[in-house]
Amino acid sequence: MVCFRLSPVPGSGLLMLCLVLGAVSSYALELNLTNSEKATCLYAKWQMNFTIRYETTNNSHKTVSISDFGAATYNGSFCGDDHNDPQIVMQFGSGFSWIVNFAKESSSYLINSISFSYNTSDTTTFPDAKKKGVLTVNDSVGFQVPLNDIFRCNSLSTLEKDNVVQHYWDVHVQAFVQNGTVSTKEFLCDKDKTLTTTVPVIPTSVPSPTTTPTPKEKPETGSYSVTSSNGTCLLANMGLQLNITQDKVASVININPNTTNATGNCHSKTALLRLSGSNIKYLDFVFAVKNDNRFYLKEVNVSVYLVNGSVFSIANNNLSYWDAPLGSSYMCNKEQTVSVSGAFQINTFNLRVQPFSVMEGKYSTAEECSADSDLNFLIPVAVGVALGFLIIVVFISYMIGRRKSRTGYQSV
Ligand SMILES: *[C@@H]1O[C@H](CO)[C@@H](O)[C@H](O)[C@H]1NC(C)=O
Ligand SMILES: *[C@@H]1O[C@H](CO)[C@@H](O)[C@H](O)[C@H]1NC(C)=O
Ligand SMILES: *[C@@H]1O[C@H](CO)[C@@H](O)[C@H](O)[C@H]1NC(C)=O
Ligand SMILES: *[C@@H]1O[C@H](CO)[C@@H](O)[C@H](O)[C@H]1NC(C)=O
Ligand SMILES: *[C@@H]1O[C@H](CO)[C@@H](O)[C@H](O)[C@H]1NC(C)=O
Ligand SMILES: *[C@@H]1O[C@H](CO)[C@@H](O)[C@H](O)[C@H]1NC(C)=O
Ligand SMILES: *[C@@H]1O[C@H](CO)[C@@H](O)[C@H](O)[C@H]1NC(C)=O
Ligand SMILES: *[C@@H]1O[C@H](CO)[C@@H](O)[C@H](O)[C@H]1NC(C)=O
Ligand SMILES: *[C@@H]1O[C@H](CO)[C@@H](O)[C@H](O)[C@H]1NC(C)=O
Ligand SMILES: *[C@@H]1O[C@H](CO)[C@@H](O)[C@H](O)[C@H]1NC(C)=O
Ligand SMILES: *[C@@H]1O[C@H](CO)[C@@H](O)[C@H](O)[C@H]1NC(C)=O
Ligand SMILES: *[C@@H]1O[C@H](CO)[C@@H](O)[C@H](O)[C@H]1NC(C)=O
């Protein structure tokens, strides 16, 4: 058992921090934060590991796994006070840091976000890294736990973002510990609930946990073009989100236009847009002409580097998406899905493409997808119907009024 005495934190007196290393399993981590009265105020015990994928100087990729936390320190960990939320801050290895933020609500607390930073300048851990510096991934987890309950998740939880995969298991954590006593009432994660046969008693007054993963943010819209000897021959603006399903687990990857390059070629009957970047080896969109008067997306051929170091590749040359007349562009601002296979789909946002007949590097008139035009179409129709109805009402009242006044005049 290792104990640290931390310097006084303003407003909360002295903090006692005790670490019990290797208590149960060899890699279990345990943190027992105490307040000025030496009463436990935050308790956590968990296991984790990290896998990081990075680009090397010769443009290949390497992965590094971190599962040894032997010399970890917890400087900056804090139980929270009136002004600051609690957090667990952990430093380990060569420049790694790991921060968990908590927040209090009326009858519950949130395990808010998990932030992980690594320093690719360290050449022993990240040999040949192309980009040197501190990189951070910050995941909003948003687990809601009733106050005075200890959160438990023995099942494996995986967070995957950017180039980092985080695994957590055997997790026990309680923030805002009352009266210095860690609760015996466990609040289970969804995965653990299905494992145990005895359903834990959860008071009905407690807000239901929001354990569903937060929806991935929209990808940024990129502008891509292909140039031939005659100038720009293909234009594409789109936000792209790849959805790869492997072993029933979907990983969603947003394409960052800042790190994505476009190449391709243009012929009279086919055109190719090839995107490549740090995590996509290639993503090909092949367009074709049909009936001499329309174009469409015929083929997608993709090869993506996954965070675990493997490569996912798939192609389908029998697609029929983004259909529009030659000489125009295809536009769809709403989210649309291109289903390449059962395991691979592309979600597109703010899409506009013109693979043929580009004049002076500009888009021609757009043919809009039905999802967009539904709205544009419905509004004038609704206004038209309302106006028509009003005209009829005015006309009928006019007729009734005229007839009444005429009969009145005649009877006199
Ligand atoms: C945490 O530390 C306090 C003070 O040292 C101790 O009384 C308590 O039993 C510890 N709790 C756990 C769960 O280890
Ligand atoms: C990149 O360098 C590593 C060694 O640092 C080597 O193993 C790998 O084959 C190289 N890749 C390419 C594409 O040259
Ligand atoms: C990380 O932990 C998971 C779950 O226990 C395990 O499957 C995986 O092999 C571990 N990875 C490394 C690199 O230790
Ligand atoms: C953490 O704090 C200890 C003493 O409290 C100090 O010796 C150590 O250098 C600190 N580590 C970091 C990474 O700040
Ligand atoms: C990252 O690592 C390099 C080399 O070890 C070091 O010089 C640098 O100060 C580190 N950066 C930070 C922010 O810790
Ligand atoms: C991570 O993001 C959350 C909000 O999403 C923020 O409150 C928190 O401070 C961030 N953590 C770090 C270390 O940047
Ligand atoms: C903490 O102690 C106070 C007073 O001793 C008591 O009223 C309260 O119920 C206790 N809270 C918990 C969670 O045990
Ligand atoms: C360039 O334009 C000319 C005339 O419009 C056409 O014949 C030729 O095929 C074009 N070349 C390319 C590479 O598109
Ligand atoms: C990813 O694909 C899976 C399986 O097709 C689907 O259940 C999931 O909703 C998709 N996610 C997104 C963000 O499109
Ligand atoms: C791309 O670059 C722009 C401008 O430099 C920046 O505002 C944006 O955040 C970057 N996007 C990503 C995903 O890094
Ligand atoms: C994009 O192309 C430029 C110039 O060819 C190259 O320097 C850069 O590394 C490429 N970026 C990616 C992400 O492939
Ligand atoms: C996909 O593209 C790769 C690389 O250009 C190529 O080797 C492969 O044959 C293509 N697959 C299909 C089905 O077109």
UniProtKB/TrEMBL annotation:
<dbReference type="InterPro" id="IPR002000">
    <property type="entry name" value="Lysosome-assoc_membr_glycop"/>
</dbReference>
<keyword id="KW-0732">Signal</keyword>
<dbReference type="GO" id="GO:0009267">
    <property type="term" value="P:cellular response to starvation"/>
</dbReference>
<dbReference type="InterPro" id="IPR048528">
    <property type="entry name" value="Lamp2-like_luminal"/>
</dbReference>
<feature type="compositionally biased region" description="Low complexity">
    <location>
        <begin position="200"/>
        <end position="214"/>
    </location>
</feature>
<keyword id="KW-0458">Lysosome</keyword>
<keyword id="KW-1133">Transmembrane helix</keyword>
<keyword id="KW-0472">Membrane</keyword>
<dbReference type="GO" id="GO:0160020">
    <property type="term" value="P:positive regulation of ferroptosis"/>
</dbReference>
<feature type="signal peptide">
    <location>
        <begin position="1"/>
        <end position="28"/>
    </location>
</feature>
<dbReference type="Pfam" id="PF01299">
    <property type="entry name" value="Lamp2-like_luminal"/>
</dbReference>
<dbReference type="GO" id="GO:0005886">
    <property type="term" value="C:plasma membrane"/>
</dbReference>
<dbReference type="GO" id="GO:0019904">
    <property type="term" value="F:protein domain specific binding"/>
</dbReference>
<keyword id="KW-0967">Endosome</keyword>
<feature type="domain" description="Lysosome-associated membrane glycoprotein 2-like transmembrane">
    <location>
        <begin position="379"/>
        <end position="410"/>
    </location>
</feature>
<dbReference type="GO" id="GO:0050821">
    <property type="term" value="P:protein stabilization"/>
</dbReference>
<dbReference type="GO" id="GO:0035752">
    <property type="term" value="P:lysosomal lumen pH elevation"/>
</dbReference>
<dbReference type="GO" id="GO:0031902">
    <property type="term" value="C:late endosome membrane"/>
</dbReference>
<dbReference type="GO" id="GO:0044754">
    <property type="term" value="C:autolysosome"/>
</dbReference>
<feature type="disulfide bond">
    <location>
        <begin position="153"/>
        <end position="189"/>
    </location>
</feature>
<dbReference type="GO" id="GO:1902600">
    <property type="term" value="P:proton transmembrane transport"/>
</dbReference>
<dbReference type="GO" id="GO:0070062">
    <property type="term" value="C:extracellular exosome"/>
</dbReference>
<dbReference type="Pfam" id="PF21222">
    <property type="entry name" value="Lamp2_2nd"/>
</dbReference>
<dbReference type="GO" id="GO:0000421">
    <property type="term" value="C:autophagosome membrane"/>
</dbReference>
<dbReference type="GO" id="GO:0031088">
    <property type="term" value="C:platelet dense granule membrane"/>
</dbReference>
<dbReference type="GO" id="GO:0007042">
    <property type="term" value="P:lysosomal lumen acidification"/>
</dbReference>
<feature type="disulfide bond">
    <location>
        <begin position="332"/>
        <end position="369"/>
    </location>
</feature>
<dbReference type="InterPro" id="IPR018134">
    <property type="entry name" value="LAMP_CS"/>
</dbReference>
<keyword id="KW-0968">Cytoplasmic vesicle</keyword>
<dbReference type="GO" id="GO:0030670">
    <property type="term" value="C:phagocytic vesicle membrane"/>
</dbReference>
<feature type="region of interest" description="Disordered">
    <location>
        <begin position="200"/>
        <end position="225"/>
    </location>
</feature>
<dbReference type="InterPro" id="IPR048524">
    <property type="entry name" value="Lamp2-like_TM"/>
</dbReference>
<dbReference type="GO" id="GO:0030674">
    <property type="term" value="F:protein-macromolecule adaptor activity"/>
</dbReference>
<dbReference type="GO" id="GO:1905146">
    <property type="term" value="P:lysosomal protein catabolic process"/>
</dbReference>
<dbReference type="GO" id="GO:0046716">
    <property type="term" value="P:muscle cell cellular homeostasis"/>
</dbReference>
<keyword id="KW-0325">Glycoprotein</keyword>
<feature type="transmembrane region" description="Helical">
    <location>
        <begin position="377"/>
        <end position="400"/>
    </location>
</feature>
<keyword id="KW-0812">Transmembrane</keyword>
<dbReference type="GO" id="GO:0005765">
    <property type="term" value="C:lysosomal membrane"/>
</dbReference>
<keyword id="KW-1003">Cell membrane</keyword>
<feature type="domain" description="Lysosome-associated membrane glycoprotein 2-like luminal">
    <location>
        <begin position="31"/>
        <end position="177"/>
    </location>
</feature>
<keyword id="KW-0072">Autophagy</keyword>
